[in-house]
Write a structure and sequence with these properties.
The complex is a heterodimer of chains A (267) and B (89). With 267 residues, chain A is of the alpha/beta class. Chain A has helices at 17-30, 47-51, 61-65, 71-74, 100-108, 127-133, 147-162, 177-182, 188-195, 208-215, 226-238, 255-263, and strands at residues 4-9, 35-39, 76-77, 84-87, 116-120, 138-143, 169-175, 198-204. Chain A has a single domain (4-263), classed as 3-Layer(aba) Sandwich (Rossmann fold), CATH 3.40.50.300. Chain A is globular. In chain B, 44% of the residues lie in helices and 21% in strands. Chain B contains three helices and four strands; from the N terminus they run αααββββ. In chain B, the strands form two sheets. A two-stranded antiparallel ribbon of chain B has the order 1-4. The relative contact order of chain B is 0.13. Classes of the chains: A alpha/beta (267), B alpha+beta (89). Chains A and B meet through helix 7 and helix 9 of A and helix 2 of B.
Chain lengths: 267, 89
């Protein structure tokens, strides 16, 4: 069984890389896969709080790279999901504390003992990003349907291809179906038209993400919310299952919907 | 906007503006050719052509586009007002 190394990146900050990494890691662990989630955002550690594991950190990735502990000692096993492990970023250092070759070496030590290594990339295109993609065998690009995020995603796709890591697959995050319906938000078709890469997931904007992040419980551990279902579907697609893309629901039915419902006698 | 306006597309939807802006900015990003360089080229084209032809500078357009197969192209559309001496009639 070969270990799959998947880096989640975006270029622009705040589009949902960390939330995506946390939920895919949890979802894959729920499916019985042995998972390590690595926070590569050194200096701006966040994956630990999104996963709710911040109180259990003893060592971090820089401690491993600088030889203060063994890799296994730094891994935090999630008690809720024993197949889920976190390698936290250092908070007191910066991106230059780790080099791409060290990242490759570190990830190689996880080969064979784990099914998936998910790497949460920092925003930007500098060394932190280079570190995150160096060990990657697959790349997921997260974007939101906004001009700035799609532009940055396009740049990232170009850089990934230049590194021979392409083409990567796209997660379109935080879609607001009501805005799309009004013609006030780029839809999946528009974004794919522009970026021309394979789609692996569409995640609707979902307030329960805020609640789940407040609690430190990934949304996939929390019943059937729209975003949770979307993340679970992405995990299933990663595992090779063919899962049809969901039609996102709008809160206010349009005239045609209402007419259909009326015609069917459902008012 | 009413349903009928929308149906007949009488108003530009903001997502269409977003898409158009994105496509334009990405042409420059992908080619690694900044808009300022195109402006410079445009000015120099005007200088060369103006020696021989009087052109409509306001209506002139020089744009970077991506043709099929991803090749970058510089497309110039230069309206001629008339030919200058000694070739003019």
């Amino acid at each position: 069984m070969t270990t799959r190394v998947v880096t989640i990146t975006s270029g622009k900050g705040g589009v949902g890389k960390t939330t995506t990494t946390a939920n895919l890691a949890a979802s894959l662990a729920q499916a019985g896969k042995r998972v390590v989630a690595i926070d590569a955002d050194i200096g701006l550690r966040n994956l630990d709080v999104v996963l709710g594991l911040e109180n259990r950190i003893v060592y971090d990735i820089v401690d491993v790279v600088e030889g203060r502990c063994r890799l296994r000692q730094a891994l935090i096993r999630d008690k809720r999901l024993p197949d889920l492990n976190l390698l936290p970023a250092a908070q007191t250092r910066d991106k230059s504390a780790v080099r791409p070759d060290q990242m490759i070496h570190l990830v190689e030590q996880l080969y064979n003992d784990f099914d998936f290594v998910l790497i949460d990339s920092p925003a930007g295109i500098e060394q932190g990003f280079r570190n995150a993609i160096a060990p990657a065998k697959e790349i997921l690009i997260v974007t939101t349907p906004e001009v700035s995020a799609v532009r940055d995603a396009d740049r990232i796709i170009g850089l990934i291809e230049a590194e021979g890591k392409g083409p990567g697959r796209l997660i379109l995050n935080r879609i607001k179906p009501d805005l799309v319906k009004r013609g006030d938000m780029l839809d999946t078709h528009d974004v794919l038209d522009i970026l021309a890469i394979e789609l692996i997931g569409i995640v609707p904007e979902d307030e329960s993400i805020v609640v789940s992040t407040n609690k430190g419980v990934p949304i996939v551990m929390n019943g059937a919310t729209p975003a949770g279902v979307a993340y679970r579907n992405i995990a299933r697609r990663l595992l090779g299952e063919e899962v049809p893309f969901q039609v996102l629901k709008t809160t206010h039915p349009g005239l045609l919907d209402r007419l259909f419902r009326f015609a069917r006698g459902q008012g | 906007m009413s349903f009928l306006d929308r149906l007949f597309g009488q108003e530009t939807r903001s997502k269409d503006i977003a898409k158009q802006r994105l496509q334009l900015v990405l042409v420059h990003d992908r080619a690694g050719i900044p808009a300022a360089l195109i402006e410079l080229i445009k000015d120099e084209i005007i200088q060369v052509i103006s020696k021989h032809l009087e052109i409509d500078r306001e209506a002139m357009e020089v744009n970077l586009t991506v043709a099929e197969k991803g090749q970058n192209r510089l497309v110039a559309d230069i309206p001629i007002i008339h030919v200058k001496e000694p070739y003019g009639t």
